Structure formats: structure tokens, C-alpha cells
């Protein structure tokens, strides 16, 4: 008679399978932890990590950056700065071989530095600080920047307001020495400086030089020439300049007529003075 088949107890089967699963998971965890220990506690891997940390700290210390920023934007910025410095050195070398001016190498940077110096000299001119204007003009050469006509004009105007006609004429002649073209503003500032220094011959010479340079004198330059003649009693020359203004289709202003009338007063010429007052009334200019 065949033996009866005994069915296993369900609770025993469940307990055995759970024990087997726990043993299998335990073995898996052991294998994973062993693999993790081999990866994390590898001496060679630790040495490489330490080396990277020390290199990053050295870079941060050299650039003055915080240690938490190591390896981030700081390295990229330093790399860009190094490339920029390399390009600047290459452009300087090319400029030195081609004989280019130092202020032309940097492009817009050099032009911006020139404009800063020019603005400073214009401020000194407005405040009648001619000494500081000349100091800034000298510093431009020391900074390897070539002053332009605007720089010289600001210096001449500053000397004119400071009644330094000799220095103004020296700067005017220096414009020609550095092979720059004088402008109407350059001559007008020089003539005004001569007018304040009572140098009427030099003022008239500059007016003639303007015509020879194919530059048309404006109202300011002609008025300065008339004032220069008025201060030394040259009323005939003052009236002649006033007539030349009308012939050149320049409209005299109040300053022009005042200088002419004052010249007639100095020369005791009351008839021409009254005539100039009549011309002012016709031009609808209010006498002061």
C-alpha cells in the first residue's frame, strides 16, 4: 500500500522562504558593501582626490577667491584673462613692428583713455586751472598716449583763461610740430590769449595765418582780434577788422561792436563810435 503523501505546513513554508530571502539579500548587501569599500577606500583613488583638492586650494589662494568656488567660474575667468593678455601682447608686438601708435593698439580702450584726459583738461579750463591742464597734457605722453587736437585746444584755452599767452602760443606751435592740423578753435584760443596779453601784432599775425591755412575766421576769432587792437589804442585796425567781418559775411555780435566802440573811445573818435551804435540798432542788437 503506497505511503500517504504529507503536505508541508504553510507556516513553515512561509517562514523558510522568508529566511531564504533574508539570507539572499544579506549576501547581496555584503557584496555591494565590499564593492563600495573597494571603490571608496582605494588608496590610489584617495591620493588622486587629495591631489585635486590641493591643486584647487592653490588656485583659489593665488586668485584670492573663496575655497568653495574652486573649479567653478574662477578657473574660466582666469583662462579668459590669460587669453586676453596673450592677445594684447601679440597686438603690441605687431604694432611695434608696424610702427603703429600705442593708443591705436588697444582700439576703443585707448580712445576712451584719451577722452578721459580731454574731459579732465576741459574741466581745468572751465575752472581756470591752467597748471593742472598742462600737467594732464604731460601725463598723456608719460602714459604713452598721443594728445590730439582736442587735447591741445583744451590746453590752449586753459592758458588763455589764465592769461598765459606765451604758453598758449607754445602749445599752438607744438600742434604743428607733432604734425597735427590746427583748427579754427586752436587759432581762436591763441588769438584770445594774445588779446588778454595785449599782443595785438601776434593776434593779427594769427588771423593772417588762418587765412593762409584756408581756415575761415569766425566771429570769436575776429572779435578777439578787435579787442586786442582796442586795448592798445589801434582803433583804425579795429575798425578795419570789423569791416572785414562784414565783407566775409560774418555777423558781428555785441562783443564785436563793443570792442570797436571802445577802440574809437580810446582814439577819441566819436563819429565812428556813433556810426557803430547806429549799425547795432539796424542789426537789432541791444547795446549794453
TrEMBL record:
Domain of life: Eukaryota
Keywords annotated in UniProt: Repeat
Disulfide bond is among the record's keywords: no
Transmembrane portions of the chain: none
Coiled coil: none
Residue windows of the PPR repeats: 183-217, 218-252
Record bears the keyword ATP-binding: no
NCBIfam families: PPR (TIGR00756)
Protein name: Pentatricopeptide repeat-containing protein, chloroplastic
Amino acid at each position: 500500500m503506497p505511503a500517504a503523501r504529507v503536505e508541508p505546513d504553510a507556516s513553515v513554508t512561509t517562514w523558510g522562504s522568508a529566511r531564504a530571502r533574508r539570507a539572499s539579500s544579506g549576501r547581496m548587501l555584503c557584496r555591494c558593501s565590499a564593492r563600495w569599500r573597494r571603490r571608496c577606500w582605494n588608496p590610489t583613488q584617495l591620493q588622486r582626490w587629495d591631489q585635486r583638492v590641493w591643486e584647487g586650494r592653490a588656485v583659489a589662494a593665488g586668485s584670492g577667491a573663496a575655497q568653495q568656488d574652486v573649479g567653478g567660474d574662477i578657473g574660466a575667468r582666469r583662462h579668459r584673462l590669460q587669453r586676453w593678455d596673450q592677445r594684447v601682447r601679440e597686438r603690441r608686438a605687431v604694432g611695434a613692428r608696424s610702427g603703429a601708435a600705442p593708443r591705436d593698439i588697444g582700439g576703443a580702450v585707448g580712445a576712451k583713455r584719451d577722452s578721459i584726459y580731454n574731459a579732465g583738461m576741459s574741466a581745468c579750463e572751465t575752472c581756470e586751472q591752467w597748471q593742472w591742464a598742462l600737467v594732464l597734457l604731460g601725463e598723456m605722453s608719460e602714459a604713452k598716449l598721443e594728445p590730439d587736437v582736442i587735447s591741445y585746444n583744451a590746453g590752449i584755452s586753459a592758458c588763455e583763461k589764465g592769461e598765459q599767452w606765451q604758453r598758449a602760443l607754445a602749445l599752438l606751435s607744438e600742434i604743428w610740430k607733432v604734425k597735427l592740423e590746427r583748427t579754427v578753435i586752436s587759432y581762436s584760443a591763441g588769438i584770445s590769449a594774445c588779446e588778454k596779453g595785449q599782443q595785438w601784432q601776434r593776434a593779427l599775425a594769427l588771423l593772417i595765418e588762418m587765412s593762409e591755412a584756408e581756415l575761415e575766421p569766425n566771429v570769436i576769432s575776429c572779435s578777439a582780434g578787435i579787442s586786442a587792437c582796442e586795448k592798445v589804442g589801434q582803433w583804425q585796425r579795429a575798425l578795419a577788422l570789423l569791416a572785414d567781418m562784414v565783407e566775409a559775411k560774418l555777423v558781428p555780435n555785441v562783443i564785436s561792436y563793443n570792442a570797436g566802440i571802445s577802440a574809437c573811445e580810446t582814439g577819441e573818435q566819436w563819429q565812428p563810435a556813433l556810426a557803430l551804435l547806429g549799425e547795432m540798432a539796424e542789426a537789432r542788437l541791444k547795446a549794453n
